Amino acid sequence: MIDDDELGAWLRLLLVSGIGREGARRLLASFGSPQAVVQASEQALAAVAGLKLAAEILTEPSDLGSSMAAVRRWLDGGEQRQVLTLGDPAYPRILLESPDPPLLLYVQGDPAHLAGPAIAVVGSRKPTPQGLDNARQFAQAFGEAGYAVVSGLALGVDGAAHEGALDAGAPTVAVVGTGLDRVYPRRHLELARRIAKQGALVSEFLPGTPPLAENFPQRNRIIAGLSQGTVVVEAALQSGSLITARLANEAGREVFAVPGSIHAEQSRGCHALIRDGARLVESAAEVLDELR
Q1: Looking at the predicted structure, is the pLDDT value of residue 1 above 80?
Q2: CA–CA separation, 59 vs 204, rounded Å?
Q3: Closest CA to 166 of 130, 201, 139
Q4: Least buried of 153, 212, 220, 246, by fewest C-beta within 10 Å?
Q5: How far apart are the C-alpha atoms of 225 and 230, rounded to whole Å?
Q6: 112-116: which pairs have CB atoms within 8 A and are 24 or more residues apart?
């Protein structure tokens, strides 16, 4: 388990305003560890990050103590809970190879499920009945083929994808936009419990973080980063699933889209993806053949 010194150093990198994930990775590349960053001289830090940011890094954030306490309460509150850092051997390599890996991952469940082959299944929160069936059937086929199914625990397609994998007896990974001490939406509380037992719940947000709107597009890069390919089942033109697809493409991963009726709002996003180069797929077998 991560000790207080290391946890405190990682949290300081995250809590100091102005660093950002890219800046933190730059500091880590220069100094080797978060502990070395916060123990470095102002002059050494200024050479990498500038004088103003160096002074902020050397000033302990006012909320560091409360943040550490929140993490410790969460870790001690149940089984199979851990914090993975960028330098942890258990940190999933496929995510490490993505353009913007999180500094910390909070994981409830078996982190080994983050390391195996995985396919993301995402889509509309208000799908058609056919969209729900497609999501469940695709996910079940992926699970039976030995892939973990990654999604976002949202209503609609996400929930159906998780259920399809669970029905296949396969692992599924839910990447959420809240702290792992909260389940959003609340109606997925029992589903989240099943996922934690058979797969893993994942977040980069501190325990206690509420469901803020800006967190969900941010978590989508983790869904894409954990997966070899992303399947969009149904999506409107303004759907967050299109963000996931774009991020998957930027990470060099395959993007697949399931077509639908030209009259359905939920199909327009998929059709836009296909026009932009996503692979049109009508069955899970086509996805599996492409990834193999």
Answers
A1: no
A2: 23
A3: 139
A4: 212
A5: 10
A6: 113/148, 113/171, 113/173, 113/199, 113/200, 114/148, 114/173, 114/200, 114/202, 114/226, 115/90, 116/146, 116/147, 116/148, 116/171
